[in-house]
């Protein structure tokens, strides 16, 4: 039984994350690339799609939430992405039309729950992520969720783009 199905009762409500399907990836790549975030970090939509497809072949997880058939948000993470042992949030994306509806908060709650309870993994009490310093709204979102900036890394992904390294210590009670 897939993890999110087994724990579905813990994610009652409108936004229940589901694994992205292969057919979702092209739509997600188009949505992301059509945003400032996508254009800043990925040279082409095709490059982004190829990275997402490769990630799905590895141990990365790409989760989506839907309203009817419409994708309302996605979460892309690796369980051992930070320092080879801690969950790392690669990307969270919420279309502008869906921001403020609780989608992002629910996806982050899923990530935190999964880090503490997922599929026989050792409990990972810390979650790491990076956010471009230019993306103030996103950094404020992470601050509200309890993530703390622990460092700044210049030109990590793109020349002249400063990234903040953020971390949260999660507890069993979410």
Automatic annotation (TrEMBL):
Q: Which InterPro entries match?
A: Acyl_CoA_acyltransferase, GNAT_dom
SUPFAM superfamilies in the cross-refs: Acyl-CoA N-acyltransferases (Nat)
Q: Where is the N-acetyltransferase domain?
A: 15-168
GO molecular function list: acyltransferase activity, transferring groups other than amino-acyl groups
What's the short name of a Pfam family annotated to this entry? Acetyltransf_1
State the name under which the record lists this protein. Answer: GNAT family N-acetyltransferase
